Every structure is written in C-alpha cells, then in structure tokens.
C-alpha cells in the first residue's frame, strides 16, 4: 500500500541548511530522508512526553542527566 505523496517548500536559514547537508553527508542519505526521520522522531518523543513520560540523555563519563523538553 502506498501513501499519497505531497510536496512542500521549506525555507531554511543557511546554518540550518548547512546542518542538514552535513547530516545527510555523514549518514550517506538524502536530505529528505533526514527530514522524514526527524519528523518521525519528534512525533514519537512528543507522544511519550504527552503520555507523562520523561526523556533523558545521560553523559557516559559523568553520569549527568539532562531532560529533553519539546516546544
């Protein structure tokens, strides 16, 4: 089953485009793939936070934890 595809125009700053280019190059994937993955990740994280979960990152060396917050 295929989903209907839609096209959109995205306006990024030079810095944002540089980051997107770097990620796509580093991962050897298209910029579209990076953006699709980012949307999916944001969606999943947002669902978990809305359900009351907290999401943290932890520094392996210091054990310091930082909570991830979304706008």
- Give the domain tally: 1
Q: Main sheet, how many strands, which sense, barrel?
A: 2 strands, antiparallel
Order of helices and strands: HHEE
What helical percentage do the residues reach?
Answer: 40-55%
Order of strands side by side in the largest beta sheet?
Answer: 1-2
Distance between the termini: 33 Å
Rg of Cα set: 16 Å
| Strand segment count | 2
What is the helix tally? 2
Structural class comes to: mainly alpha
Shape from CA axes?
extended
Calculate the mean pLDDT score and round it.
94
Estimate what percentage of residues fall within beta strands. Answer: 5-15%
Regions with pLDDT < 50 over 5+ consecutive residues? none
């Amino acid at each position: 089953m295929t989903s209907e595809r839609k096209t959109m125009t995205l306006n990024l700053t030079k810095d944002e485009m540089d980051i997107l280019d770097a990620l796509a190059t580093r991962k050897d994937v298209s910029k579209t793939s990076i953006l699709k993955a980012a949307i999916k990740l944001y969606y999943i994280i947002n669902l978990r936070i809305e359900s009351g979960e907290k999401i943290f990152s932890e520094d392996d060396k210091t054990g310091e934890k930082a909570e991830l917050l979304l706008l």
